[in-house]
Amino acid sequence: MATEKTGLAGQVNMVLRDKYGYIKEERSGPNTVVNGGIGEIVQLAAGTGGDAFTHIAIGTGTTTATVTDTTLEAEIDSNGGGRAASSVTAEEENTANDTIQLASTWSSFSGELSIAESGVFNDASTGDMLCRQTFTALAVDDGDSLTITWRVTLDQAP
């Protein structure tokens, strides 16, 4: 009998624009799906609870993301950097509806920030985290905007 393995994996993409709309920097990389996020997905699928993932947060933390993370290391909640509601869609990576995509835009920062982490959550202020990633800091200036898109795919391996 063959054994199938299923896993969650994905990508985070960031586009930082200056106050005139010009791209200052673009980044992309893998994400880290955390244990609490997997638990929340199982509860949703089983109909025993759970809340949909709807928000993206940013922070200044630099500690490498791990599967046991439950929050960002240093979430930003000032200068226009608070959690942002996401446009959430089901997408196709390999098969229909195997990927959740969340996209959020912070349209105008009101001060300088050094953003070095991001994560996906199921609440506007607390909640469970689905995934997190750290990266080389993005230097955000007054008036800049930032769009972050997370894609998390449920994939089967033979």
Q: In words, what does this structure look like?
A:
There is one protein chain. The chain is mainly beta and 158 residues long. It has one domain (8-157). Helices cover 8% and strands 49% of the residues. It has one helix at 35-46; strands at 5-17, 23-30, 32-33, 55-59, 84-85, 87-91, 99-106, 113-121, 129-140, 145-157. The strands form 2 sheets. Strands 2-1-10-7-6 form a 5-stranded antiparallel sheet, with no helix packed on it. A 5-stranded antiparallel sheet has the order 3-9-8-4-5. Strand 8 (113-121) and strand 9 (129-140) form a beta hairpin. It is globular. The model has no long low-confidence stretch (mean pLDDT 92).
Sum this structure up briefly.
The protein contains 1 helix and 10 strands. With about 160 residues, it is mostly beta strands. The strands form 2 sheets. Strands 2-1-10-7-6 form a 5-stranded antiparallel sheet, with no helix packed on it. A 5-stranded antiparallel sheet has the order 3-9-8-4-5.
